[in-house]
Amino acid sequence: MKRVGVFITTVVLFSSCAFLGQDEVPIPAYIYVPSYTYQTDLDLQGDTSSKFTDVWITQNGLTKGTIGYPALIPIEAAGPTSITLDAGIIRSGQNETRVNYPMIASYVETRNLTPGVVDTLRPTFTYLPGAKFAFIEDFDRSGSSFVINPSIFLQGDTVIKTSDTKSWKPGTFSGRIQIADGHQLLQLIAGGPRDAGNNFEGYLLDPGAPVYLEVDYNSNLPIDIGYYFIDPNSGIASQVKPVVQTFPTNGTWRKIYVDLTDEVSVQRPGTKFIIYLGLFNEQNLQEDVQIDNVKLVYL
């Protein structure tokens, strides 16, 4: 029975080819996306730091898939065709998890496609009009969103603004974190306005809506990224809630998009959040740590 089945399948395949003329094989048009540009309102949305690793493609409302830059995408269409491109990121530093970044607006363009012809698209990405920023810390503004957590502060722990050759962008400031000699632990916290007791009030975020923390970093130490939450009934802050730990970058600036959506969603409505970036210098290395373009973005 097994041999008969193989024989019948072979006959069907060859019969199908006989009925499909060579001129009936569809010839696709091609969309080539070599790169992208990124625009922000510098005052309201911070600088144009980005790491969009992939482009997500939709044709006339039908999702075609995702591919890294530079991207060459076959499109089985001819004539006016609506092409939608979305910015893809690595979620929370996990290379195996690629997602469409929900804070960025889709780029839509209609092209008159011709089979066998390559059309080049260079999308311009922007934040969605509804994207909100709980805070932006780029170290070029007055004041600072971060303070060193006083509960683990040691004299000599500090963050200084620097615009040397190691900064994220020449001519602008980055934040250099320095740990006191003999101290192994430092934590920066950001939580909005202070109450009468000089405690952070925390950021009120909408459960179920996308929430991301963007961070540029250049560090020879791992950086812990997480949060505290303040219970709306008791007003008491939780213990530390770690989300992700970065790897040392060996002198190279990197960017991470930390997805906090699920973290916010599991808390009760009215919960407020305090963001932290922490260093643990277990081996007492001479730290070389800079951060920049830290943004808490939500919808």
Keyword list:
Jelly Rolls; single chain; mainly beta; Immunoglobulin-like; disordered N terminus; 299 residues; six-stranded antiparallel sheet
Outline:
The chain has 299 residues and is mainly β. It has helices at 2-19, 42-45, 261-265, and strands spanning 29-33, 37-38, 54-59, 62-68, 71-75, 79-90, 98-100, 107-113, 118-120, 124-125, 132-137, 147-148, 158-162, 174-178, 185-190, 203-204, 211-219, 223-230, 241-245, 254-259, 272-280, 289-298.
Uncertain parts? 1-21
What is the residue-mean pLDDT, rounded to a whole number?
A: 90
**Can you give the helix content as a percent range?**
under 10%
Distance between the termini: 60 Å
3D shape: elongated
CATH architecture of the largest domain: Sandwich
Estimate what percentage of residues fall within beta strands: 35-45%
Biggest sheet layout = 6 strands, antiparallel
Oligomer state equals single chain
From the alpha carbons, calculate the radius of gyration and give it in angstroms.
25 Å
Verbal overview:
Strands 11, 13, 14, 17, 20 and 22 form a 6-stranded antiparallel β-sheet that branches. Strands 12, 15, 16, 18, 19 and 21 form a 6-stranded antiparallel β-sheet that branches. The model is unreliable at 1-21 (pLDDT under 50). The protein has helices at 2-19, 42-45, 261-265; strands at residues 29-33, 37-38, 54-59, 62-68, 71-75, 79-90, 98-100, 107-113, 118-120, 124-125, 132-137, 147-148, 158-162, 174-178, 185-190, 203-204, 211-219, 223-230, 241-245, 254-259, 272-280, 289-298. The protein has 299 residues and is mainly β. The protein has 2 domains: 25-125, Immunoglobulin-like (Sandwich), CATH 2.60.40; 132-298, Jelly Rolls (Sandwich).
